[in-house]
Amino acid sequence: MEQETREIARGLRRRDPDLLDELIGRYQYRLPRYLWTLTGSREVAEDLFQETWIRVLERGHQYNPRWRFEAWLFSIARNLAIDMLRRRQPESLDAWRLSHPSEEIAAREWPDRQSTTPFESVAAGEQAERVQGVLRRLPPEAREVLVLRFQEDMDLNEIAEVVKAPLSTVKSRLYRGLETFRNLLEEEEA
After folding, report:
1. Residue numbers in the chain where pLDDT is lower than 70
2. pLDDT, position 94
3. What phi and psi values does residue 20 have, to the nearest 5 degrees?
4. First vs last Cα of the chain: how many Å apart?
């Protein structure tokens, strides 16, 4: 891992196009899915995805190989999403999402991998819709932490770096978010 981050740092300083292609391929589903979680809009997520890679190219020399690349990448994407939303003047990420309900999409439109059978594909799609429905009902801070932890598989320190919050705050958001998620899921089942 440490060797990989040093290679990424060197490649970004050189603006290595092969490295950039590899990184874009590696994050072509995860990053837009995360951006969609923040904005609720596929179109905006795709625009921010492209803008994120432009920033990576422009600021690659700033990447510090002590940190995992994905934490740095997701921080850039999150900051771009917040900047874009501030320019549009809503009070919060959720306010913008609620004002654009027609742009909401199912998370399965950005799959990680293909299922092996049609049944698994349909079952996974139904489960994803159910989970996304419950996630949309969570407060944005809790939703973001849950997505970064369980969907993007980041550790708590990386999440704290991405959301620019103390580790204790991330832990409490995660705990409260899981509790709220569980309650909403049970409520839906009843």
Report:
1. 89-126
2. 55
3. -60, -45
4. 45
Task: Please report the DSSP string for 121-173 in residue order.
Answer: HHHHHHHHHHHHHHHHTS-HHHHHHHIIIIIS---HHHHHHHHT--HHHHHHH
pLDDT value of position 123: 60
Calpha distance 153→134 (Å, rounded): 19
Question: Looking at residue 52, what is its pLDDT?
Answer: 95
CA distance 103 to 21: 29
Domain of 50, CATH number, reads 1.10.1740.10
Tell me how far CA of residue 24 lies from CA of 70, 156, 174, in angstroms: 11, 24, 28
Structure tokens at 158: 């990386």
d(CA 104, CA 172): 28
Let me know if residue 150 belongs to a domain.
no
Q: Residues 6 or more apart from 70 whose CB is under 8 A from it?
A: 27, 30, 152, 154, 158
Q: Give a yes or no: residue 125 inside a domain.
A: no
Q: How many domains does the chain have?
A: 1
What is the number of other CB atoms lying within 10 angstroms of the CB of residue 113?
Answer: 7
Is residue 173 packed enough to be buried (19+ CB in 10 Å), middle (13-18) or exposed (0-12)?
buried
| Contacts of residue 121, Cβ cutoff 8 Å, sequence gap at least 6 | 114, 115
pLDDT at 103: 44
Domain that holds residue 2: 1-105
